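Minutes, project check-in
Item: structure for the 254-residue chain
Input as provided by the requester:
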Amino acid sequence: MGSLANKVALVTGASRGIGRAIALKLGAEGAFVIVHYAAARDRAEAVVADIVAAGGAGCIAGADLTATDGVETLFAAIAAQLEPRGDPPIDILVNNAGIGMGRDLLSISPAEYDAVFALNVRAPLFVAQAAAQRMPEGGRIINISSVVGHMAFGGGFVAYGATKAALDYMSRSMAATLGPRGITVNSVAPGATATDFLGDAMQSEAFVASMAATTALRAVGQPGDIADVVAFLASPAARWVTGTRVVASGGTLL
């Protein structure tokens, strides 16, 4: 039995990349994992299939979290999936869904600004609000942030970085609000990680080498590196850790 046996975990944006790795890790630790997806149902189903093949259990739940009724849609889907299991509480929430936005002050448009804030800030706030209403004492909320929230990188992520800084603040505020219920809230800030989040750039050996050179460990992170940190924060071993930003970046720009 893993450290998360008999727990229910919701991972948003879990059909690929870091979210997929987190879902697989939590499943391996014994949690029943709700794999959220926005559009790629087939990829979400494949994640659940991988969890089941490894001896775990889970389900999918689709919703566009940028829509005004996205959170309501998500939790309606979750309720339908969990009802046959006795409608258990959600013990763990990982707010991972997000989009990048490589724009600086002079190039970003209002529409791009609204899009990145809708998914990276508004969605995790209201997903957490809904999850907290059915989360028991000892629950866990983990928000996936980014080192970009505290490092300007030449100003090329003016809105994206602002969303991650906002998420880090919200994590601390959530921790203060939910602490009396024994619920911990933390954020995890990855650095450059080998997923398709950075698009075609990760196919360039020169780009990967340049990213690795910015870290103390001289390497680009792997999704599993982040998933292991999240699994720790979700576990009973992290019961005394809350309101903290954990930088999982290999030592970026020390």
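Outcome recorded: The mean pLDDT is 96.
No further action items on this chain.
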